[in-house]
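ok so i was messing around last nite and threw this chain in just to see what happens. nothing serious, just curious
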Amino acid sequence: MAKLYFSYATMNAGKSTLLLQASYNYRERGMRTAIFIASFDDRAGQGRISSRIGLSCEAIAFDGSDDLYRHIEALNGDGEGEIACVFIDEAQFLSQEQVWQLARVADRLHIPVMAYGLRTDFQGKLFPGSKALLAIADELREVRTICHCGRKATMVVRLGADGKVAKDGAQVEIGGNDKYVSYCRRHWDDIMNAE
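result:
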């Protein structure tokens, strides 16, 4: 039985590395995968996933208007072989409807879907895609990384151009190690509530 999986973490936990490794495992065994990434995340180039340790691959760029069920259904029937697994990077950027579309891929097309993304933003608020995935995914997997104190990091702060912690702003601002730092809840709270 195919399932919808959501692997979530804070920044720099290795989510993209895990996605790329899992897809490679399928492909190494001659199985076809479909890999998607949010179109506006172009840090590695449009339609490309890259990890901090140097792994990368081409991906299908999606935006909020794309019907992922129809797209995957068309890929699965394009004559190039059935899709064995669908991978979604930056799943926090999915819409609620797209999360339901992915659930239908698992339920009706019988293709497992593995979504990887952030749970919360720099203000500690759920992303829309993450909220929907936490609500309906068949399996939730936490990918762990650590705070500077050694505790599990569950939160992230955003750094402004001046290097100081941003306490407000748009929920989405693409960036990596240069812009985001992961902390445990206690240190995140200390930083976000410092005068």
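not much to say yet. The chain has a mean pLDDT of 86.
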